[in-house]
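cron nightly-structures :: item 1 of 1
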Amino acid sequence: MNRIRRPLRLGAVAVGAVMTITACSGSDGDTLYVYSGRHYNIEKAFELYEDETGVNIEFLTGNDGALRERIEAEGEDTEADAYITVDAGNLATAAADGLFQPLDSEILQSAIPAELSDPDGYWYALTIRARTIVYNTELLDESDVPTTYEELAEPEWKDRICLRNSTNVYQQSLVASLIANLGPDEALRVVEGWSDNAEILSNDVLILESLADGLCEVGVTNHYYLGRMLEEDPDFPVGLVWADQDGRGVHVNISGGGVTKYSKQPELAREFLEWLATEGQDVLVSANHEYPANPSVPPEPLITREFGTDFVRDPLDASVFGALNADAVRLMDEAGYG
């Protein structure tokens, strides 16, 4: 397959991030345009889709917020047929901004559990990522690791934990889930405790590296970052415990997508999402060590072996904590969480 890369002409559209547009070609069939805030190994899935269907895919990658801003600014002139992104908060924001059109798809409704999709059919999850507790295996026995997000706020963990900064959407969604599950007052108490106890870092990889170096003992990250580390170094001294297994379960987030409001080819875009949710699930999730959103698709071997598949997941609807994103940001600000 020939691959063509060319710089995107941004024109008068104001966007705040570097973007890359890529065309996968080699067929004389239809062309589908995809804007994607998801960067992990999407080309492999897109190429397989082209091989199986003959549909060409041109895709634009970039910052999630910048892509939403671009679709909104382009309006009826947008080329985007589908928008794919990470985190329920980004999907909920796109739906609230009117960037999606509702989908009536028996295939998506059958493949993706209701709690992982928008109740009005504007978006559907494609992968699952759990945000859970990780620890230095050389400093702590697993039996001594805190088992809930709330425990990380207790005074005994002061100066012993590393957490992600408040501008990160994964951390915002975790806090949004606390608001939904605990109520705003208790969620505020927990986040204030985190603020007192934690070294706040800018990304999940840095948290894992800090754990391995002994700079902190416990952290919270998305599970697949540890999967990547263990793939490169099976002796990487960081372990994982699924949070809150005696309670509501570990917080799970999603990546997903929908058909844009002004898509010129909504049926083609719907069929593309249906393929990603079924035949394309394995190739989409495996390289990044995510869990499939479609429960009939088995997870890839590394996370099955290292983390297992039998764990309690917080059943909170992604649409619920996605819609609480702004509340989570305000709460973290009130708590003084950096």
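cron nightly-structures :: done
Confidence is low (pLDDT under 50) at residues 1-19.
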